[in-house]
Design brief:
With about 350 residues, this protein is of the alpha/beta class. It contains 11 helices and 12 strands. Helix 1 packs antiparallel against helix 7. It starts with a strand and ends with a helix.
Amino acid sequence: VHEEANPVGWMTFPSVENRDVSIPLKWHDKFVLPVYPPMRLERVTMKPKEVAANWLDVNNAAEKKFIETFGMDLSRSRLNEVEANYYMGNFELMLSLIAAGSSLNKIFVDVTAKVLESEELLARFDVPKEFWGRMRKSFERQLNTITGRFDFALDNDNNLKSFEYNADSASTLLECGRIQQKYLESIGVADKGRVSGFRVERMLKMAWSHTGVKGTVHFLIDDDQEEEYTALYMLETAEATGLKGRLCKGFEEFSFNDDGMVVDGAGEVVTTVWKTWNWNTAMADYKDAKATRGEGWKASKTDKVRLCDLVLGDESILVYEPLWKLIPANKAILPLVWDHAPNHPNLLPTSYDLTEGLNKSG
């Protein structure tokens, strides 16, 4: 056994002669790692042919809303198309995406911590200063979050590169977690492999469990069909872990109780919120409410509840995704991430200034 150049111990085997060092060692096949093929992603063109009708479950709330939004027209006849395309990736691509996502998520979170510690860096993110303290508290309190999505592309050398981190996004979860698989089964090509989102539903349930949330989660959406079926899918995964979900379209059902706390239409105090509303929209609503309500405003039962009251009001309300996700989701973080992990294989060189290197690379 060696540590650097110095032996730190020896092992002896009685009745076994020392090996003749002039004879090269022969490794057993089981100790030789196989050479895996490089990452591959190819576009496949096909003519969809329905082999299973009614491929979505009309008794499932999320799938029913998806049907209302897009229908189940597998032939794409409404678009006068006879061909469809999908992308086929190999196992190495999947493993590489998992590794890249895990590595970059840690880097972005580490850099977010640095940003939150520095007023100079925070000023680059165009977040009103009055929310800085609240953002820091959310980082300390809600490090376990639920969703986030990296946008990756393959460069000319077949390397994965990230364009950005949509850290506050839940879009396409139903499509990736369920719709794709059912679509493949319905057109008879499921035997080609499994869809990229085969672990999404299981991971969402695990994420809910790790939050430590108890009781009811209020799912806040605008009057939008895509937001609705996404929220219904998230609600389903939350309820699978023992939570209670309540879908809330708009804010009409909410009110303030005698203690100034927000309650829903059943009189239950709101403690946890999952939202599709953008944080910038919430901050704009907060600014407008502050101007409208005036200084010293205190909630009363006659006041209307606004978006900002649910996500930027009582700090005891947990919001997913939390306020601190504004930092990794902002492209202003990219140069800081590059400085933190220069030459990381999944990052593109980024700077606040146009450097000579960036100018040459286009």
